[in-house]
Write a structure and sequence with these properties.
5-stranded mixed sheet; 6-stranded mixed sheet; 2 domains; alpha/beta; Nucleotidyltransferase, domain 5
């Protein structure tokens, strides 16, 4: 089973591309934590492929020898299918159809593996965080501007699930239950929890997960809303918070590091 995969060792490197900042750090692959303080550079505007690639290269090279020479894992706010961006969220629409793997591999001169940002966070939680050692089906939702999702089955990622777009009550789930909606509509925690109940209840009925993890910045306030939910599935806050994307991307790149360029 996937949870029996070999233990990684050494240092990898992860980069998290976001709408406002591009962050990167070397990652201790055995411990699942940063091996040096991360570096963050504002995302260029407009966030075109060439402009973002330049900043990614700047982030990696800023660490000098500490960046290593192995594969670099990169998160991207989009559906990533075989290295190609199929959507674009908070970055320029010119990314759609771009082979992000090839672009960054050429720019960095080393192997790059690009993954959806929520998927990277889910892998990090499965390897080192709230789902470490959990067998079966793990569902992670990142509650922020929208709802990102990751589905992990026996430690293996099912990529690009995009389950924040489930239709619930005739509406896109993230248009009702994202944390940004809670803030914009000034919802009480109780009111928002009722919307989350419908969302997570639908996820339960579709996938019967063994564990649900809630990520995103609002997970720091999980005590205000998780106890209000009545689910048959255990639901817990994410453990790695904002570090998860970089760590997960580095881990996935290292696991695929034997693949040819």
């Amino acid at each position: 089973m996937a949870l029996g995969r070999r233990q990684l060792s050494g240092t990898g490197f992860g980069v998290d591309i976001g709408g406002s900042g591009i962050k990167g750090a070397p990652v201790d692959l055995a411990a699942g934590q940063f091996a040096a303080e991360r570096n963050r550079i504002p995302t260029p505007q407009p966030a075109t492929p060439d402009a973002v690639a330049d900043v990614v290269a700047e982030v990696v090279t800023s660490f000098g020898d500490a960046a290593g020479t192995g594969p670099v894992g990169v998160t991207f706010p989009a559906v990533i299918q075989h290295g190609i961006a199929r959507t674009a969220s908070n970055v320029d629409k010119s990314w759609i159809g771009t082979d992000v793997d090839a672009l960054l591999t050429q720019r960095l001169g080393r192997q790059v593996h690009v993954v959806n940002d929520a998927d990277a966070a889910g892998i990090a939680e499965a390897r080192f965080g709230a789902a470490k050692g959990v067998d079966g089906v793990v569902f992670m939702a990142t509650l922020g501007t929208g709802i990102g999702s990751a589905l992990i089955v026996d430690g293996a990622l099912v990529p690009n699930t995009e389950l924040g777009h489930l239709e619930i009550g005739g509406k896109d789930a993230e248009s009702r239950a994202a944390d940004s909606v809670r803030e914009a509509e000034d919802l009480s925690w109780e009111h928002w929890a009722r919307r989350l109940q419908k969302y997570f209840g639908a996820v339960e009925d579709l996938f019967w997960p063994d564990l649900i993890i809630v990520g995103g910045g609002v997970s720091r306030k999980s005590a205000k809303f998780l106890p209000l939910l009545e689910l048959r599935t255990p639901i817990v806050p994410a453990a790695l918070l904002n570090d998860a994307g970089i760590i997960g991307a580095a881990v996935l790149a290292a696991e695929l590091g034997d693949a040819p360029l």
